[in-house]
Design brief:
about 180 residues; globular; Thoeris protein ThsB TIR-like domain-containing protein
């Protein structure tokens, strides 16, 4: 399969999502960055502005998400829209790759955690590069399992993660794309 037959679904935000997009562009991979009116993102390639009607199709209770992730979300209106765009990203793909921090309770830190939790709910193939643990983990049978070198094998994949991308996270993404798109 040629690189042009692959599509990255992301959000184009600062940090991990911007890096996913840069690597997709470098490797000749299509890119779709879901966003909403008035939301600031860094990527300009493949921007898909969701309408209010499309956002409502992915409406989610902030109380539910807060309980699931064991944390509270502030700025309800903006956060709800961000969570809705993450749902569009995850639902559009078959494999989900995240850069972030896996917490002791098995969730991923921050708003990024919703992408990982929604991928679990949707039974997607889910990988997280844990920057603190400096390694890749795959969600299998209800727990995180350390894996050596995941590969993007599906032509529809999601790339999301922390706004605070560290050097090891950046390197992990570069190596992921190099392994996947030789």
């Amino acid at each position: 399969m040629s690189n042009q037959s692959y599509t990255l679904f992301s959000g184009g935000a600062q940090g991990a999502e911007n890096q996913f997009g840069k690597l997709a562009e470098y490797h000749g991979i299509n890119e779709v960055n879901y966003t909403f009116e008035g939301h600031k993102i860094e990527r300009t390639r493949g921007v898909r502005v969701l309408t209010d009607e499309e956002l409502k199709q992915k409406d989610v209770s902030l109380t539910y998400v807060s309980k699931l992730l064991n944390r509270k979300f502030t700025n309800a209106e903006k956060m709800r829209k961000v969570l809705q765009t993450i749902m569009w990203q995850v639902e559009s793909s078959h494999q989900v790759f995240v850069v972030g921090t896996i917490l002791d309770d098995g969730t991923v830190k921050g708003g990024t955690g919703w992408g990982a939790e929604f991928a679990k709910i949707c039974n997607k193939e889910l990988y997280v590069f844990g920057q603190v643990k400096n390694g890749w983990f795959k969600w299998e049978q209800g727990e995180w399992v350390s894996v050596e070198a995941p590969v993007i094998t599906d032509n529809h994949f999601t790339g999301t993660g922390t706004r605070f991308l560290e050097d090891n996270g950046k390197k992990a993404l570069e190596e992921l794309f190099a392994r996947s798109f030789k």
